[in-house]
Write a structure and sequence with these properties.
single chain; Four Helix Bundle (Hemerythrin (Met), subunit A); 71% helix
């Protein structure tokens, strides 16, 4: 057998993205950042009310799950509402709510897992989220809140290991 080499051609595509986007970003506009932070601070007065509305939506969805079961559309809606709360919790000043909702999302994400999720575990998550919001627990160093998050996370992990 003889040595054969394949000769290739290197093609360099044009860098059109750089032309469209431009060069490096300039320095941050501190005035715009300050304006955005001020706008967020003005909205902060509404965060508790908005979080309460989200919890009510979660509880209403849980009630539908109780009636229709968790395996169908109601279970998917429960995941969707939980996922929304997971994102909003920290934004609205309730980081523990985000942690609990994250745990709830894990057990309701996939249809086959969600269909096997015990309603008691779902209820524990929903009730804990409600308790944190009603108790205005806004720090992660609250001992009761920490215990809730730890216990729910452990139970969710244990459940997921059996599925």
């Amino acid at each position: 057998m003889g040595n054969s080499q394949t000769t290739g051609v290197l093609i360099t595509p044009p860098d059109t993205l750089r032309k469209k986007v431009g060069g490096r970003l300039g320095p941050a506009n501190k005035a715009a950042i300050a304006k955005a932070e001020a706008a967020l601070a003005n909205l902060a007065d509404n965060f508790d009310e908005w979080m309460t509305l989200e919890v009510t939506k979660l509880e209403d969805t849980r009630n539908v799950v109780r009636n229709e079961g968790i395996g169908g559309d109601a279970g998917q809606k429960l995941f969707n509402v939980s996922h929304d709360i997971k994102g909003l919790g920290t934004t609205y000043g309730y980081p523990l709510v985000s942690s609990i909702a994250d745990s709830l999302c894990k057990i309701t994400l996939e249809l086959d897992v969600r269909a096997k999720a015990p309603l008691s575990l779902v209820n524990a998550h929903v009730d804990s989220i409600r308790a944190v919001v009603r108790g205005h627990i806004k720090t992660t160093n609250n001992p009761v809140g920490q215990s809730l998050v730890k216990e729910l996370s452990e139970r969710a992990t244990k459940f997921l290991a059996t599925v």
